[in-house]
Amino acid sequence: MTVINEKTKISERKKDVVITVRNLKTYYTILGGLFQRKIGYVKAVDDVSFDLYRGETLGLVGESGCGKTTIGNTILNLVPATSGEIYFEDDRIDNNFTQDFRKKIQMVFQDPDSSLNPRWKIVNIIGEPLRILEGMKKRREIRKRVLELLETVSMKVEHLDRYPHEFSGGQKQRIVIARALACNPEVIILDEPTSALDVSVQAQILNLLKDLQIQFNLALLFITHDLSVIQHIGNRIEVMYLGKFVEEGTIDDVFYHPTHPYTKALLSARPTFDPTTRSNRIILEGEVPSAINPPSGCYFHPRCPEMEDRIGCNIEEPKKISISETHHIWCQPFKNGKKF
């Protein structure tokens, strides 16, 4: 099996697309008035497109509320898409999400406590998708398979008959990962899987995910606001702001050559032990605009420190600008003709 190195250019490897998202919009309806009529929409995801390749980790990063989790929920059909198209390989799934697709695309949620039934033993929690999706009926067969899955995530036979409250946060997340692997998925969507864990436990879970990805050739859509995490585990990254992508590229492209003003500000806010980086901190003024009534033109322009140097930020929609074959931003050109 070939392991994809994050520094390898996409053009130099075979592109095996497993998830395709095109012009996806997901709006939440706002109801108001005496008769609870529609009075507006929250534009959680507003016209995004991307591809997820087999065997890679694609990171979605951005501030809280920018629409990262909504993208994952929409792919899984937990939230209906307002418009756009989602494909699993060559099959469209946004309007026909069958049980077969449910087996191939799994999710690991942010809080393991909220996704584990406190009244069920671990053997029943992990065994549920085996009964419902895989059609297993015999208890001995299910128990054997659950034990195999637990051993895959470095847990033991004595954990089979325990309840969720008897485990630590890291162990609960391992159980959720084992459940996600039960149906042999091809894609796993991870929604902040390490945000509630200690740093040492985070490292264990991230290393486990990397090992499982190689072992099962998984495609991972990794949703996080922790840039250090995605730098460690990711291959490519999509930076979101208020429902839209502002920059995309490989890990090296975005972390070592950030080009969009928002990406620069986001990276400058990372915790660091180097005191010399304090002087390079970019402070964004103002608040994040409302997703109900976003600004005209570029959504970022009211807070952009480079707005005065660019053309038509508050009037025209941002243009997709290619920095390199793998690196793109959505922005406006400079007034003086300066290149990015």
End-to-end separation in angstroms reads 38 Å
Estimate the mean pLDDT confidence.
89
SS field, number of helical segments:
10
> Strand percentage, roughly?
15-25%
Shape: globular
What structural class do the secondary elements suggest? alpha/beta
| Helical content class | 25-40%
Major pleated sheet: 8 strands, mixed
Strands of the largest sheet, in order across it? 6-7-8-3-9-10-12-11
Radius of gyration: 21 Å
The unreliable regions are 6-14
Number of strands: 12
The succession of helices and strands, N to C, reads EEEHEEHEHHHHEHEHEEHHEE
Provide key terms for this protein.
340 residues; globular
How would you describe what is shown here?
With 340 residues, the chain is α/β, with parallel strands linked by helices. Helices cover 28% and strands 24% of the residues. The protein has ten helices and twelve strands. It has helices at 68-75, 99-104, 112-115, 122-132, 139-152, 169-181, 199-216, 227-233, 251-256, 261-268; strands at residues 17-32, 37-53, 57-61, 83-88, 91-92, 105-108, 187-191, 219-223, 236-241, 244-250, 319-322, 328-331. The strands form two sheets. The protein has an eight-stranded mixed β-sheet with strand order 6-7-8-3-9-10-12-11, sandwiched between helices. It has a four-stranded antiparallel β-sheet with strand order 2-1-4-5. A hairpin with a 5-residue loop joins strand 11 (319-322) and strand 12. The chain is globular and about 70 Å long. The two termini are 38 Å apart. Mean pLDDT is 89; it is low at 6-14.
